[in-house]
């Protein structure tokens, strides 16, 4: 056991060092000062389907900005609640906001991609900023984003908003999205390499230059992809356009899910498709996580029962290194490190969701989300 724990602690130490370096490679959006009268060629595009609980706060955060976009378009995707009424209320007050009715979903398309495609067709700006209805902009967000876009000139920019969580399952699972990226994706190569394998994006916040968007085929090229954000990012890189994964949490936050059930369904929809439905890859990652983060806990219990001081200390070291990795990633993404101590529970939760996602994918039962079923 001592040899095993020594090897694990060495691997975790290497992982910690890589993670610290890796997180520092993410460019951070910086405050910018632009005149409110300065015209900016930016269209904010929001697909909305039954978002009455979230849309008002999203729109309010945008109209509270010092600098407005050229236009904001909300696409009502056949909502059955007050989504459209909320959007129209803002459109009545602000002439640069308008509401568009979504067309009937075409065969072969997924709902969000079809909504985004319609929004892109309606937009008139050089830059398209797709936002989810649960995204909130902090003051100065539009200036900071637009300055970065003007510097980049073309291509795509995405980033992971600060994640607000409420329920216990949210606290445990939602931050694991950045945990996997921080541990495994060399962020430096996201910017420097045109290899689509080095890509990560968050569908809640995607800015893309319009010519680039059309050159890669728009959302029509990824119309049947469940993980549309990653698919779009990979096409951008494959076509040779610049891509930036930025740290946007100083200016953008969101609460993706509002219950444990939503977390389960949302992650279940994305996990297996997110690894290209590869049984080997998903199983391999989970085996690695089990070895690094769960087995040391078991070893700790065994060593405690046997009063084995050496192995007890080694197991505690492994646990501490794992917690440190999680804490580094949480802090770099604007979160507290409190929940890092429950990393083994987060890992077990992620594994459970992953195998549920795999089961649905292999049996072709279809993933349910917002009243629609996707294969």
UniProtKB/TrEMBL annotation:
Keywords: Carotenoid biosynthesis, Cell membrane, Glycosyltransferase, Membrane, Transferase, Transmembrane, Transmembrane helix. GO terms for cellular component: plasma membrane. Pathway: Carotenoid biosynthesis; staphyloxanthin biosynthesis; staphyloxanthin from farnesyl diphosphate: step 4/5. It comes from the Bacteria. GO terms for biological process: carotenoid biosynthetic process. Its main location: membrane. Residues 43-167 form the Glycosyltransferase 2-like domain. The chain crosses the membrane at residues 279-302, 309-329, 341-362. GO terms for molecular function: glycosyltransferase activity. InterPro entries: Glyco_trans_2-like, Nucleotide-diphossugar_trans. It holds the Pfam family Glycos_transf_2. It is found in: Cell membrane. Belongs to the glycosyltransferase 2 family. CrtQ subfamily. Catalyzes the glycosylation of 4,4'-diaponeurosporenoate, i.e. the esterification of glucose at the C1'' position with the carboxyl group of 4,4'-diaponeurosporenic acid, to form glycosyl-4,4'-diaponeurosporenoate. This is a step in the biosynthesis of staphyloxanthin, an orange pigment present in most staphylococci strains. This is 4,4'-diaponeurosporenoate glycosyltransferase.
């Amino acid at each position: 056991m001592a040899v095993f724990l020594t090897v694990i602690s060495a691997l975790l130490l290497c992982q910690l060092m890589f993670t610290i370096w890796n997180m520092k490679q993410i460019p951070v959006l910086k405050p910018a000062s632009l005149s409110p009268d300065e015209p900016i060629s930016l269209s904010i595009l929001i697909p909305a389907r039954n978002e009455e609980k979230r849309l008002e706060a999203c729109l309010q955060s945008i109209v509270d900005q010092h600098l407005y976009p050229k236009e904001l378009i909300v696409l009502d995707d056949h909502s059955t609640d007050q989504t459209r009424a909320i959007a129209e209320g803002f459109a009545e007050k602000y002439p640069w906001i308008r509401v568009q009715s979504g067309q009937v979903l075409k065969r072969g398309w997924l709902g969000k991609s079809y909504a985004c495609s319609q929004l892109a067709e309606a937009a008139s700006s050089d830059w398209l900023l797709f936002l989810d209805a649960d995204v909130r902009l902090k003051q100065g967000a539009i200036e900071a984003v637009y300055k970065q876009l003007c510097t980049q000139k073309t291509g795509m920019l995405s980033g992971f908003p600060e994640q607000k969580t409420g329920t216990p399952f949210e606290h445990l699972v939602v931050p694991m999205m950045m945990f996997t990226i921080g541990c495994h994706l060399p962020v430096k190569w996201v910017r420097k390499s045109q290899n689509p394998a080095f890509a990560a994006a968050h569908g809640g916040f995607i800015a893309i230059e319009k010519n680039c968007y059309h050159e890669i085929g728009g959302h029509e090229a990824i119309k049947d992809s469940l993980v549309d954000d990653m698919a779009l990012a990979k096409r951008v890189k494959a076509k040779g356009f610049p891509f930036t994964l930025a740290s946007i949490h100083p200016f953008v936050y969101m609460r993706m899910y509002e219950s444990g059930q939503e977390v389960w369904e949302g992650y279940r929809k994305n996990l297996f498709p997110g690894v290209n439905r590869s049984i080997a890859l998903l199983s391999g990652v989970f085996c690695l996580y089990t070895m690094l983060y769960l087995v040391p806990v078991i070893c700790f219990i065994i060593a405690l029962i046997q009063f084995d001081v050496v192995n007890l200390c080694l197991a505690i070291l492994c646990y501490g290194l794992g917690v440190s990795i999680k804490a580094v990633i949480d802090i770099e993404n604007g979160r507290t490190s409190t929940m890092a101590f429950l990393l083994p529970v987060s890992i077990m939760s992620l594994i459970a969701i992953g195998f549920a996602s795999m089961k649905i994918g292999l049996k072709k039962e279809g993933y349910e989300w917002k009243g629609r079923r996707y294969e």
